[in-house]
Amino acid sequence: MKLYRTTGGNYVEDGGRYYQVPESSWDVLVAHENLQAYLASVVQTGKPAVDFPSARIEAPIGSQEVWAAGVTYYRSRSARMAEAKDAGAGDFYDRVYTAKRPELFFKATPSRVVRPGGSVRIRCDAKWSVPEPELTVLINQRGQILGYTIGNDMSSRDIEGENPLYLPQAKVYDGSCALGPCVLLSSEPLPATTPIRLEIERDGANAFNNSTTLAELKRPIPELVEYLFRETSFPSGAFLMTGTGIVPPDEFTLAVGDRVRITIDPIGALENTVAQGR
Ligand code: DO4
Ligand code: MG
């Protein structure tokens, strides 16, 4: 089952059919005692909706904070070691890759999260910007994994590379995060063979594409969630992005108008255009 938040309310999809959920509040759904069982009952007792296609799909978020894990893939470790070398900080990334404690950082408030089809932003003071395609987990207020969505952790590599203490500026700004198109409901881990694909299109032509799989993710997702919830409470639940395993080559930077598509097959595809300025 997949859960969608739309301009016309919340919908659950099952077997290609969409059912409207009586609750219009995303936060109320996330807080449900047993969300999966509840939505299964909505499917069983409800009538398929006819109006879903006319509703605009919104980011599947209410008042949840968005957090992110970093350097959870070898590719991310290596790219960041290289970009921070001149700052004498390359070693930090190797150390966090092998450390027991993961890197977790605050990524976005809901107002900075972009919907599927909306515009993610690059900073006007950044010269080197990339998307980061990340499997993203929705967790309820009790620390239970409810399901998975697709996330884009937009990043300014030159700002982060200049000094790791600039990480919040490289990562947290308006339009720096996209989520969607839905939440695939499952408390079980996705198979290690699950592919994550990134495609970037410029002027109608392919500018970059690559893929990885969850087998490359170094840390178990429940362990990342446990660290996040260890000393911090999330009364409305939280999203946790699990890190990127795809980094475009160093000469690549995003440009205004680029189209970024991230595909994680069991969930779907998250597509956004790139913008700058207000
Ligand atoms: O250490 C900085 C951020 C890392 C990150 O966002 C990632 O690995 O995905
Ligand atoms: Mg990232």
Name the poorly predicted regions.
Answer: none
Q: Quaternary status of these chains?
A: single chain
User: Any idea what the radius of gyration is?
Assistant: 18 Å
Share in helix: 10-25%
**Number of distinct helices:** 7
Largest sheet: 10 strands, mixed
What string, H for helix and E for strand, traces the elements in order?
EEEHHEHHEEEEEEEHHEEEHEEE
Q: Could you say which structural class the secondary elements and strand pairing correspond to?
A: alpha+beta
Which of globular, elongated, flat, extended, rod-shaped describes the shape?
globular
Strand content: 25-35%
**Terminal-residue CA separation:** 37 Å
What binds here, in terms of ligands, is:
2,5-dioxopentanoic acid, magnesium ion
Mean pLDDT: 97
**Total number of strands:** 17
Task: Sum this structure up briefly.
The protein contains 7 helices and 17 strands. By secondary structure, the chain is of the alpha+beta class. It is globular and about 60 Å long.
Characterise this structure.
- With about 280 residues, this protein is α+β, with helices and mostly antiparallel strands.
- Helices cover about 20% and strands about 35% of the residues.
- It contains seven helices and 17 strands.
- It has helices at about 25-30, 35-45, 75-85, 90-100, 155-160, 165-170, 220-230, and strands at about 1-5, 10-15, 15-20, 65-70, 105-110, 115, 120, 130, 135-140, 145-155, 155, 175-185, 195-200, 205-215, 240, 260-265, 270-275.
- Strands 1, 2, 3, 4, 5, 6, 9, 10, 12 and 15 form a ten-stranded mixed beta sheet that branches. Strands 7-17-16-13-14 form a five-stranded mixed beta sheet, with no helix packed on it.
- Helix 3 runs antiparallel to helix 4.
- The radius of gyration is 18 Å and the shape is globular.
